[in-house]
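Thread amino acids onto this structure.
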């Protein structure tokens, strides 16, 4: 099985497990989110260790192993991105499975189980035609990033609140939004799989200063990113630079 097919299969299967756990009704509220994190993580970690025993692994739910820094190939996963949304029965949560090669988000799959949809870097959807104004900018449901709010105001863009990072990134891939700008703090597992899919789809991906997103660093904190249609990237980056000046 190819790396891309493996990423997709694992993400989809983890999503099915999470849906089954959710539908059982045996656990609810925040406890459901905690159980979902543990169940999905246990499955993904074991599946990757069996299928790719020579590769390294970084998961949100596992203590980071410094030995991974000596590996070219590192699987970076978020077993349940959007734990709060999952526990509330919403649809904007995701499963991220990605492979970083030499620091680049090379391969990824983002499962959106509540939508019965998985998007992968091996077969991304074609970029939809640009929508009519106003532009649509995705922001966090609970803590919209200050940069995003300021840029949206400058662009006269509509703010679209949404849950997980994966759900927001895939909304841009699917043509449901134009820009996902985040500066409120994230880690490598929040963006690696979405970035791999978005790049494969032909979208712009970078940090908000325009520099590349680099993975498998000693400190996995990777606080900001920009995913958008390429025709909007320069203007968004210039606006961010002006805000930070």
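Threaded sequence (245 positions):
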């Amino acid at each position: 099985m190819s790396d891309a097919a493996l990423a997709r299969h694992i993400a989809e299967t983890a999503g099915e497990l999470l849906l089954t756990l959710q539908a059982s009704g045996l656990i609810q509220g925040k406890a459901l989110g905690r159980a979902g994190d543990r169940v999905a993580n246990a499955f993904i970690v074991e599946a990757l260790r069996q299928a790719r025993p020579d590769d390294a692994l970084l998961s949100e739910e596992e203590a980071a192993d410094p030995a991974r820094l000596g590996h070219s190939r590192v699987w970076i996963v978020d077993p349940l991105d959007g734990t709060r949304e999952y526990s509330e029965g919403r649809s904007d949560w995701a499963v991220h499975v990605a492979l970083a090669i030499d620091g680049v988000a090379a391969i990824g799959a983002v499962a959106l189980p509540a939508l019965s949809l998985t998007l992968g870097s091996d077969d991304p959807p074609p970029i939809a035609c640009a929508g009519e104004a106003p532009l649509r900018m995705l922001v966090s449901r609970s803590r919209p990033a200050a940069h995003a709010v300021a840029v949206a105001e400058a662009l006269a863009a509509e703010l679209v609140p949404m849950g997980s990072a994966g759900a927001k990134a895939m909304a841009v891939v699917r043509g449901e939004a134009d820009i996902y700008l985040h500066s409120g703090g994230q880690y490598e597992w929040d963006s690696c799989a979405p970035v791999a899919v978005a790049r494969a789809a032909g979208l712009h991906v970078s940090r908000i200063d325009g520099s590349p997103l680099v993975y498998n660093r000693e400190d996995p904190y990777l606080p900001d990113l920009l995913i958008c249609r390429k025709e909007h990237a320069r203007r968004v980056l210039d606006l961010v630079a002006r805000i930070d000046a």
